[in-house]
Protein: Nucleoside diphosphate kinase
Amino acid sequence: MEQTFIMIKPDGVGVIINRFEKKGFSLKGLKLLTVERSFVEKHYQDLSAKPFFSGLVDYIISGPVVAMIWEGKNVVTTGRKIIGATNPAESAPGTIRGDFAIEIGRNVIHGSDSVESARKEIALWFSEGPVSWESTLHPWIYE
Ligand code: RTP
Structure:
Protein backbone atom coordinates (compact mmCIF):
# COMPACT_ATOMS: atom_id res chain seq x y z
CA MET A 1 0.00 0.00 0.00
CA GLU A 2 1.22 3.53 -0.82
CA GLN A 3 2.89 5.56 1.94
CA THR A 4 3.79 9.23 2.34
CA PHE A 5 5.99 11.26 4.65
CA ILE A 6 4.24 14.12 6.45
CA MET A 7 5.96 16.62 8.74
CA ILE A 8 4.25 19.07 11.06
CA LYS A 9 6.66 22.02 11.00
CA PRO A 10 7.69 23.78 14.26
CA ASP A 11 4.63 26.03 14.51
CA GLY A 12 2.20 23.37 13.29
CA VAL A 13 -1.05 22.43 14.96
CA GLY A 14 -2.20 19.13 16.39
CA VAL A 15 -5.40 19.08 14.37
CA ILE A 16 -3.26 18.07 11.38
CA ILE A 17 -3.15 14.49 12.66
CA ASN A 18 -6.92 14.49 12.98
CA ARG A 19 -7.36 15.58 9.34
CA PHE A 20 -5.41 12.60 7.99
CA GLU A 21 -7.02 10.15 10.40
CA LYS A 22 -10.57 11.31 9.64
CA LYS A 23 -9.95 10.90 5.90
CA GLY A 24 -9.26 7.21 6.53
CA PHE A 25 -5.48 7.01 6.19
CA SER A 26 -3.44 4.86 8.59
CA LEU A 27 -0.66 6.21 10.79
CA LYS A 28 2.43 4.00 10.38
CA GLY A 29 5.03 6.04 12.25
CA LEU A 30 5.12 9.16 14.44
CA LYS A 31 7.83 10.93 16.42
CA LEU A 32 8.59 14.34 17.86
CA LEU A 33 12.16 15.42 17.17
CA THR A 34 14.46 18.40 16.82
CA VAL A 35 16.69 18.11 13.78
CA GLU A 36 20.06 19.61 12.90
CA ARG A 37 20.75 22.00 10.05
CA SER A 38 22.63 19.37 8.00
CA PHE A 39 19.69 16.96 8.28
CA VAL A 40 17.17 19.55 7.03
CA GLU A 41 19.56 20.52 4.23
CA LYS A 42 19.50 16.87 3.15
CA HIS A 43 15.71 16.69 3.34
CA TYR A 44 15.29 19.83 1.22
CA GLN A 45 18.40 19.26 -0.99
CA ASP A 46 16.41 19.83 -4.21
CA LEU A 47 15.75 23.41 -3.05
CA SER A 48 19.36 24.25 -2.09
CA ALA A 49 19.75 26.83 -4.89
CA LYS A 50 16.57 28.72 -3.94
CA PRO A 51 16.91 32.16 -2.32
CA PHE A 52 14.61 31.12 0.55
CA PHE A 53 16.63 27.95 1.33
CA SER A 54 18.51 29.17 4.44
CA GLY A 55 15.34 30.78 5.84
CA LEU A 56 13.48 27.51 5.27
CA VAL A 57 16.17 25.54 7.10
CA ASP A 58 16.14 28.09 9.98
CA TYR A 59 12.38 27.62 10.26
CA ILE A 60 12.54 23.82 10.43
CA ILE A 61 15.30 23.79 13.07
CA SER A 62 13.58 26.48 15.17
CA GLY A 63 11.72 23.90 17.27
CA PRO A 64 10.54 20.30 17.42
CA VAL A 65 8.75 18.85 14.40
CA VAL A 66 6.36 15.90 14.20
CA ALA A 67 7.48 13.33 11.61
CA MET A 68 4.86 10.88 10.40
CA ILE A 69 4.27 8.08 7.93
CA TRP A 70 0.72 7.87 6.60
CA GLU A 71 -0.53 5.00 4.47
CA GLY A 72 -3.48 4.51 2.14
CA LYS A 73 -4.69 4.52 -1.46
CA ASN A 74 -3.29 7.57 -3.34
CA VAL A 75 -2.08 9.00 -0.02
CA VAL A 76 0.66 11.09 -1.68
CA THR A 77 -1.65 12.99 -4.04
CA THR A 78 -4.60 13.11 -1.67
CA GLY A 79 -2.31 14.16 1.18
CA ARG A 80 -1.10 17.13 -0.89
CA LYS A 81 -4.74 18.10 -1.51
CA ILE A 82 -5.50 17.92 2.22
CA ILE A 83 -2.43 20.11 2.85
CA GLY A 84 -3.31 22.75 0.21
CA ALA A 85 -1.21 25.05 -1.98
CA THR A 86 2.35 25.92 -0.87
CA ASN A 87 1.43 29.59 -0.34
CA PRO A 88 -1.32 29.80 2.32
CA ALA A 89 -2.58 32.97 0.63
CA GLU A 90 -3.65 30.68 -2.23
CA SER A 91 -4.63 27.57 -0.24
CA ALA A 92 -8.36 26.89 -0.29
CA PRO A 93 -10.29 27.17 2.97
CA GLY A 94 -10.72 23.67 4.36
CA THR A 95 -7.15 22.69 3.53
CA ILE A 96 -4.61 22.62 6.36
CA ARG A 97 -2.62 25.59 5.06
CA GLY A 98 -5.82 27.39 4.09
CA ASP A 99 -7.10 27.08 7.63
CA PHE A 100 -3.96 27.33 9.78
CA ALA A 101 -1.32 29.42 7.99
CA ILE A 102 -0.84 32.89 6.53
CA GLU A 103 2.70 33.09 5.12
CA ILE A 104 4.57 30.80 2.71
CA GLY A 105 7.62 30.74 4.98
CA ARG A 106 5.49 29.54 7.91
CA ASN A 107 3.16 27.12 6.18
CA VAL A 108 2.97 24.60 9.08
CA ILE A 109 3.22 21.30 7.18
CA HIS A 110 5.26 19.35 4.65
CA GLY A 111 4.06 16.43 2.52
CA SER A 112 5.99 14.33 0.00
CA ASP A 113 5.33 15.44 -3.58
CA SER A 114 5.67 11.98 -5.22
CA VAL A 115 5.80 8.30 -4.32
CA GLU A 116 9.55 8.36 -5.03
CA SER A 117 10.13 11.39 -2.75
CA ALA A 118 8.04 9.68 -0.07
CA ARG A 119 10.22 6.58 -0.25
CA LYS A 120 13.40 8.67 0.15
CA GLU A 121 11.97 10.87 2.91
CA ILE A 122 10.64 7.90 4.91
CA ALA A 123 14.08 6.26 4.64
CA LEU A 124 15.74 9.49 5.84
CA TRP A 125 13.39 10.26 8.74
CA PHE A 126 12.55 6.68 9.75
CA SER A 127 15.82 4.81 9.22
CA GLU A 128 14.51 2.29 11.77
CA GLY A 129 11.52 1.62 9.44
CA PRO A 130 7.79 2.08 9.91
CA VAL A 131 5.97 0.75 12.93
CA SER A 132 5.22 -2.85 12.05
CA TRP A 133 1.93 -3.55 13.70
CA GLU A 134 -0.53 -5.92 12.10
CA SER A 135 -2.06 -4.24 9.07
CA THR A 136 -5.85 -4.44 8.92
CA LEU A 137 -8.08 -3.80 5.93
CA HIS A 138 -10.99 -1.56 6.79
CA PRO A 139 -14.12 -2.54 4.84
CA TRP A 140 -15.72 0.80 5.77
CA ILE A 141 -12.88 2.64 3.95
CA TYR A 142 -11.91 0.46 0.96
CA GLU A 143 -14.15 -1.41 -1.46
P1 RTP B 1 6.84 21.18 1.28
O1 RTP B 1 8.02 20.60 0.52
O2 RTP B 1 7.25 21.86 2.57
O3 RTP B 1 5.71 20.22 1.44
O4 RTP B 1 6.24 22.35 0.40
P2 RTP B 1 5.84 22.36 -1.11
O5 RTP B 1 6.23 21.08 -1.78
O6 RTP B 1 4.40 22.75 -1.14
O7 RTP B 1 6.73 23.54 -1.66
P3 RTP B 1 8.24 23.56 -2.15
O8 RTP B 1 8.30 24.36 -3.40
O9 RTP B 1 8.86 22.20 -2.11
O10 RTP B 1 8.90 24.46 -1.00
C1 RTP B 1 9.29 23.90 0.21
C2 RTP B 1 9.01 24.86 1.32
O11 RTP B 1 9.84 26.01 1.16
C3 RTP B 1 9.19 27.14 1.70
N1 RTP B 1 9.11 28.17 0.69
N2 RTP B 1 9.34 29.43 0.95
N3 RTP B 1 9.70 32.22 0.76
C4 RTP B 1 9.35 31.54 -0.32
O12 RTP B 1 9.18 32.06 -1.40
C5 RTP B 1 9.18 30.10 -0.19
N4 RTP B 1 8.86 29.26 -1.16
C6 RTP B 1 8.82 28.03 -0.60
C7 RTP B 1 7.81 26.71 2.14
O13 RTP B 1 7.84 26.43 3.55
C8 RTP B 1 7.60 25.42 1.36
O14 RTP B 1 6.69 24.58 2.02
Notes: The CA atoms of residues 123 and 129 lie 7 Å apart. The two ends are 14 Å apart (CA to CA).
